[in-house]
Amino acid sequence: MKRRKAIQSLCAALGYTLTPGTVTGLLLSCEAKKSEPFWEPMFFEQKDANLVAQLGEAFLPRTQTPGAKDVGAHIFVDVFMGKVSGSEDQELFRKGVKALRSKFEKITQKPIIDGGTMDYSKVLHTLYGVPKDKQPTITQLLDGGVPEGKEEKENFYTYSFLRIFKKILMMGYYASKEIGENVLSYLPVPGDYEGCIPVESVGRAWSIT
Amino acid sequence: MIHINTKFRGEVTYDAIVVGTGVSGGWAAKELCEGGLRTLVLERGRNVRHIQDYPTMNDDQWDMECKGNLTQEELKSKPKQSRSGAGRRKETAHFFVNDLENPYNEDKPFDWIRGYQVGGRSLIWGRKCFRLSDLDFEANKRDGHGVDWPIRYKDIAPWYSYVEKHAGIAGNRDGIPHLPDGEFMPPFELNCVEQHAKERIEATFPDRYLITTRTANITEPKDHRGKCMSRHRCDRGCPFGASFSSQSATLPYAEATGNMTFRPNSIVSQVLYDADLKRAIGVRVIDTETKDQIDYYARIIFLNASAMASAAILLNSRSDRFPDGMGNDSGELGHNVMDHAMGAGAGGTMEGFEDKYYKGRKPGGFYVPRFRNTNKNTVTDKFIRGYGYQGGAKRSGWQRGQNDFGFGGDFKDNLLEPGPWGIGMGGFVECLPYHENRMYLNYDMLDKWDQPTITFDAEFKENEKKMCEDAAVMAAEMLEAVGAKNVGSNCKITNIGLGIHEMGTARMGRDPKTSVLNAFNQIHAVPNVFLTDGACMTSSACQNPSLTYMALTARAASYAIKQFRNRIL
């Protein structure tokens, strides 16, 4: 928003009239130069900004509907962790990011700095794409508290991180303005309540529940 | 420093004073003003104007930075209010008290969830309105717990009708003897799964019913109030005035008479007593903004500060005649604390309705009236009294994917579609009046106004625990009968207080030796003080109690107005 204002005042100084389209154009042309739009996390370290964005997109990638990055869901994870989460979750998260960085390099054989959405997707497939009958083992690991052993610890923190990350990311995504107003069925003032209607008459799920 | 009121007494003398502006205080103000009494209405909290002061009424989740979650910073002032769901949501947090400024003490855990503002908890209540019946009014006499109610259903029935017609209750006439029908506006219909559940439960269990809930949301326009728009954002303040609150439904009527003097930011510390007249003569107020102490005088005083606060005011109103608090000849003042025990219930999923959905967010689901110990066919020897359930059925949203291992494009897009149906219900369990369940004043721990704080020493006991266990089992049994899958039941009894139905601290009764109030809610020994909030309840029944406070208030006010006109008071 600050940048938009800055551009507007710049244009005002040059005597241009801005339409919303030209503002977007200016913003995009600026952002296109980087692989990822720059954003300054409040909770995460700057070096993890890319990880948070790419992992978010790997969880909820763009299809015919927007992806996590499109609606800023990854930024919400950062705000939520910084402002809403308690110190225990924050600590778990910090250790989790570290563990995930290590997992990333083992799985992709790449330095984390080069990681793109596809690499994180690969990481998720390896870590989260476990068959249904193996899933309870992971849940048990997480519910059992911090285990002994270096590898067990790394697994514990990685999965703890992924579990919390996904929960918050989904809130950031599905409860975003774009998804809530334009993708899901949005009806802020319904009027009369109707208790039993064909699902086709609504389409996608209601955004306000 | 104590500021002394220097105003001429005539300037601060009224016909009546009402302390509190919540559900019952709003009603007292309306009735007394409409009855022609010049009435001073006092509220300890800030003013909240209808609509203008509902800052979140139209906010969607995405309009709030943390999507409705309170930040750690915001939670710092809500260590106790956050024990209740709505007390830890951004949409409603401003209608819950700051615990740091309004402390209380717990000998035993007690969740005291409060709203200190004009309108009180009428802005944030659940709005479920059920009449009590003689099954309830005769209960204490029948099984010997507590004391007998001094009234019966026939005494209050016309007043239920009176308040229902004005408040506007959406509901269906179901013809259930122990949950009497009222004066209803058209009900919110059951959705497909709820209707199915109703049919199955009523076919399987001869004494059980599932009805659409009865709720104080108008479904037809009335005076300045618009009908419910099915937003279900009632507890943020309803811009249509469809949801019952003091702001929408009682205070405007009081104001329209021209008889109301309205004073927010006014803590009542005590009721003033004149030993010669043997009457209360007024109240002492602390202005929360100036800290001035001001005495106001009136011939009639209505205490509607909430069950615990009204009792606290009386306990703090000490005199030679009443060394243990005004009206406390019986020693029952502050005792017999009751609430509804919650935490027992069941939930499951429903298949076969995937092609069905609903439109709108109705302000309540269904209600399963009490079916234990209601007649000779339903007697159980496991416990006395009974419980009812509130419940509902809905299709799950995107949250269903939060705890599994899913990810990726298909996962994301599938969650945009309506999910499986779920159905659940939770019990509201009657609590017996136990003398030892009490609140008392702590003069060692003063609040920022130098007023004593309240200490709670109360708990649910064996009978409530047994009922909770039964309520969990029966809820699961009914959901199985409905055909629900993955049925799970839960019985984790809540702390007393969390039902937010505090009652009983100044009970009505027939005998001044064992009760505080008489059949018209007057203090036995101080007949010009009326107390018509939850404190007056002689037993708790299992129904949501606010409608009964409304009816008792209107009834007591009508009586007070007659006594005033006849110069008896």
Automatic annotation (TrEMBL), chain A:
Organism: Ulvibacterium marinum
Protein name from the UniProt record: Gluconate 2-dehydrogenase subunit 3 family protein
UniProt xrefs under InterPro entries: Gluconate_2DH_su3
Domain of life: Bacteria
Pfam families on file: Gluconate_2-dh3
UniProtKB/TrEMBL annotation, chain B:
Annotated Glucose-methanol-choline oxidoreductase N-terminal domain residues: 35-341
InterPro entries: FAD/NAD-bd_sf, GMC_OxRdtase_N, GMC_OxRtase_C, P2Ox-like
Pfam families reported for this sequence: GMC_oxred_C, GMC_oxred_N
Domain of life (superkingdom): Bacteria
Keyword flag Flavoprotein: yes
Annotated stretches, region: Disordered: 71-90
SUPFAM superfamilies: FAD-linked reductases, C-terminal domain, FAD/NAD(P)-binding domain
Domain (Glucose-methanol-choline oxidoreductase C-terminal): residue spans on this chain: 433-552
Cofactor(s), names only, from the UniProt record: FAD
Keywords: FAD, Flavoprotein, Oxidoreductase
GO terms assigned for molecular function: flavin adenine dinucleotide binding; oxidoreductase activity, acting on CH-OH group of donors
PANTHER family: PYRANOSE 2-OXIDASE (PTHR42784)
Family membership noted in the UniProt record: Belongs to the GMC oxidoreductase family.
Name of protein: GMC family oxidoreductase
Source species taxonomy: Bacteria, Pseudomonadati, Bacteroidota, Flavobacteriia, Flavobacteriales
